[in-house]
Amino acid sequence: MSPATGTAAAQASDGELDALRLCLVLGDAVAGTTSPNPPVGAVVLDALGRTVGRGATQPPGRAHAEVVALTQAGNAAAGGTLICTLEPCAHDGRTGPCTSAIQAAGISRMVFGATDPNPVAGGGAEVLGTRGIDVAGGQLLDDVRRSALGRWLTAIELGRPHVTWKYAATLDGRVAAADGSSRWITSPQARADVHRLRGQLDAIIVGSGTVLADDPELTVRDHDGELAGRQPLRLVLDRRGRVPPEARVFGPGGPTAVWIDAFTELLSALYEGGMRAVLLEGGPTLAAAFLRTDCVDRVVGYLAPALLGAGPTVVGDLGIPGIAQVLRLVVEDVTVVGADVRVTAAIPRPATGIEE
Q: Which of 1, 77, 105, 195 has most Cβ atoms within 10 angstroms of its Cβ?
């Protein structure tokens, strides 16, 4: 019996797939609050297919998405179907195994998106199958990969945080003018969208050059310009000790750390510290360093309908000698944001922890 298919055929019904899409929305809504746990969404359908429970992963140490949804459903869960974005856990951690809660609720069918690649927590589908629960796994995997959960899956598979590189540039690829000025290349709407993006991740990484040139705060603010309740770690790479203590990155708005060791050790340290998804906002040199070492997983570019003709470009030298070696990305989304265009693209890599 495959962990992805359990005791039933892998195909889910249209209603179950619609519920799974809702689960993805629920999981995305808690992105940035769950690490090192995955941002999972869950929905309970009763025996007639009606939605009777919804849930998402709570902060570490609190209930998983499945338990939240089952609790909301109550007795209506008996004989029903549990839908969730990730295979339920089967181990005792800071909370009990979700497989036990699923069985105790009387669930008769389980539908999920991705198989859990974590060897400690995985195997829940097989456990449920052996307990007589129909299981349909491996659903909507492309959608899962594009979601916040997909970033967590990449982190577990690679043993380092998923890295999103964000930049803002003109249509001719300039991130600043020839005199170094860069405020503001993009529209207020695009800048507000960046705050939304920051709020989904565990840390924001910049180099000392960016801090010296732009003096950013690197905070997350709401639509009213107020500081959000949760702030990611602000991490400055500064091996030469160039950043002054009065820099705004050390001001109010969240924790700040300075990294003075080798760049190659940074992501491992963040992963060991429980971080699973980070945002790279550094300049062209730092972006090139991450790309050359295969440490970027997703690119979010904000393109302003403007031309500069001179000034620093988006990224530095990648060591690519010719067009045959070009680094090609897979476009996931193109959206107009204010006067600008946001392009989201993934750097393709084989998936190792999900079964079809």
A: 77
Pseudo-torsion of CA 285, 291, 293, 294, nearest 10°? Answer: 170
Q: Are 4 and 113 in contact (CB under 8 A)?
A: no
Q: Which of 356, 352, 348, 338 is nearest to 146 (CA)?
A: 348
> Domain of 57?
14-154
Q: What is the pLDDT of residues 241-281, one digit of tens each?
A: 999 999 999 998 889 999 998 887 999 999 999 999 999 99
CATH at residue 49: 3.40.140.10
CA contacts within 13 A on the Cβ side of 150 = 20
Number of domains in the chain: 2
Q: What is the pLDDT of residues 276-311, one digit of tens each?
A: 999 999 889 999 999 999 999 999 999 999 999 999
* Long-range pairs of 263-268 with CB within 8 A, sequence gap ≥ 24: 263/237, 263/289, 263/293, 264/293, 266/205, 266/235, 266/237, 267/160, 267/161, 267/163, 267/295, 268/159, 268/160
Residues 305 and 204 in one domain: yes
CA pair distance 65, 37, nearest whole angstrom: 11
Model pTM greater than 0.70? yes
**111 and 23 in one domain?**
yes
The catalytic residues are: 66
Instruction: Work out whether the CA dihedral 181, 184, 190, 193 comes out positive or negative.
Output: positive
CA–CA gap between residue 273 and residue 60 (Å, rounded): 13
Q: Are 50 and 16 in contact (CB under 8 A)?
A: no
